[in-house]
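Chain A, query sequence.
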Amino acid sequence: MKMEKLIRVRTMLLLLVVSSALFLGSCKKDATVVAGDKTALTAAIASADALSAAATSTDYPQADITTYQATLATVKTAAAPMLTQSQIDNLVIQLNAAMTLLNSKAYGFIDESLYLVAGWHFDEGTGTTATSYSAAKQVATFTKGWTALLGASAALPTWVDGYKGGKAIYLNNGAHLEVPYSVSFLPADISISAWIKNDVQGWENNCIVSQNYWWGYKFATQSVGKPLFTERISATAVQDFDANSGIVAPLVWTHVVVSLNSTTKILKFYINGVMVQSYSSTDAVGPLTRTLSLVDVETAYTYTMVAQPFLIGSFATDAEIALHPLNFNWITTANVASFKGAIDELKVYNTALTDGQVGKLYNDEKP
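Chain A, predicted structure.
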């Protein structure tokens, strides 16, 4: 009997020790769990809620909206209790992925990871370079132009206020930006988008961008402010097209786009998201010629053209003018052939944007 009582006492003591150890161990484990910071998650949920509220079947397929909203509800439920930092970070990743996916389903969506050659916000606001935000970081350097003609009046670009906050570049007296040449600037299909504010309406050859001037392509406004695109269509020929029914008013920020599909031979101009002019093969639109060898029959030059920098605000470097002066003997102080005004949000795509994509681009960017 005494032995049985002793065994029972020992058993009870053992159970007490084990349970105490388990209790203390669980307390110790709980004490090591640190609640994570939900600041980023709270901000992500707010952004996701805003997207959910704005998403309509006019802009997105309804099935994708429904899937997105279900994911958002799941994340918000999972976010309620205390979470570790790792759990919080995973929820932020999940929510950001859901927002990215829904945005990619928007009608008129442009996948810039695939199609953006270079894009500049021009928000640096200081210094003498502007770097593109695209995957390939294209550095545009502030440069004086037409120095032989303008002398001390030749100017560098300056920073000004952008079209909706941020900064932009202001160009005058030959000021432009030069980007080292890349074959990516001569794609088969091309679209160029920019916000511009012209100083005057009738400034001729108001060049927004160019690649090897008219022996590659150039995008400008001229005459009474009509957007103009010049493309090289053969070894010896170039063709000018302008937005005959579209006018860019001076001193007003305006969104302009040109889009060339070399396969269908369709060229389109857009002003503030609206297509204002279209040309086809019957108008001599041809595939963009992407080689740089040429015979310039008009000036009797026969040469293999050296790849020029991609130019913002001009269409020839001082070195090219000095090398081939007959190409540029028409330039005067009254027609400097470089941009006069401000440029913001410049983008070059290696695809022909559709009407819907241009409309969405304008609506996304407009002030």
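The chain has two domains: 39-104, 112-365. The first helix runs from residue 2 to 32.
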